[in-house]
Amino acid sequence: MRHPSNPHPISHATPSDGSCRLARPRVRTIGASIPGPRHVREGRANQDAWASCRLPQGVVLVVSDGVGSCRYAEIGSRAACYAVRDAVQSMKPETPPTELTERITAAWNSRLERRNPTECAATCLFSVRTHGGRLLVGGLGDGLAVVTSSDGAAEPRVIPLRGGEFGETVALGDGRESRGWVVEEFDDRAGQLRTLLASDGVSQDLSQDRLQAFHDWLIATFGKLSTRRWRASLRRQLQAWPTPGATDDRTLAVMWTGGEVAT
Amino acid sequence: MTTLSDFTIATPRPLPVIVLADISGSMSENGKIDSLNHALDEMIKSFATEAQDRAEIQVSVITFGKAGAQIHSELTPASKAAWSPMQADGGTPLGAAINLATSLVEDRQRIPGRAYRPAIVLVSDGQPTDEWKEPVKRLLASERGSRADRFALGIGDDADKAMLAAFLGDPAKAVLQASDARQVQTFFRWVTMSVTSRSRSATPNAAPIQPPPDLARDTF
To answer: Is there a smaller number of Cβ atoms within 10 Å at the N or the C end of chain B?
Structure first.
């Protein structure tokens, strides 16, 4: 687990969840996942998954990529989405990131219904924003987890996931969970931070120097659409992926705050 | 109008091939350097004709000889590479060449994280004239070097088979031995086939390399 003090301009300071507010930012999420051309051709299921949900503790966003060589990869990736939700449901305002990731790992194992975890291996990237403005972003495995600010004043913070290269990654179920998680904590009481999560089918082909602009574009273009329309539009964008030779499943998901919710 | 292509990389993921070529003085005997030049030229031309819609094969050649270890040709897409023949002279500073290869493989600017697993090919006809064990150990211990596909060819009877086997770092992999120009070409055809079969694969990182040829029988 990684707990940097403050290595970059986006603040990591932990807020007090007990602070008094009359209104809190409205947290929004969008996302999409499509099977890559290879899985479509082979008639196989999408091994990526994404999910978002609102809980009494806050808002949860998850992206998971089932490890391609595993028999039940698609079950593993869906279980990862549920596991993050399960873990956050039992989270207290002060729960440290290490405890949260331990709970995710335990919840994922219990979601497999007696299947061998090594046959269900999946990465797990998440963003959890508590109602108190505590933002936890990170994950286990490859892909992209990045935090940007809505005013663009701070450099995007790319969470240094221990993903591995050349097709190798750490993942839930591979026995290396305890040393693979990387989670960073941010103070977002101001409601200015946004999260972008992407599986490696997307992140491998993104221009790293345009992450802020990409994040801005996603929110500006799809955030204003109705749920039905952003779902369809995002899926179309992923299906028309412009990089030649890209065959992986593709998933991306975004969390941001827009407007206020009276409390 | 802004589209997704404004934020994505327009080229396929690279598949790097790094050749470590011995150009010591002994390589000038019996037409060895000529056959190596010819085989490398043929390999690069084969790569250049491959469809680049799934992976972009890139080639770099590192030489080791009189001028020490040098980048003979920078890592370049094979479709844009122009082969310039090598001249043989001097000693065999293999350790320095291995260090250069390790630096290249670990350089995330030249080989980005999106690249497919690289292939490293070592060809030598003699005994190294510098310290090579530590450089080889460092390559095999490096995060990326350890994952690279490695190929080794000894040319002639004086090739250091123990050194070539150490470079492969896997007792299950055989050091191939060539005694004439035809066998050098057969070796490089095998390397070419192994790389192109990966570049055509839907999963280039997972695709295995082709079984090695029997150079004595030229059965590849």
So the answer is: N
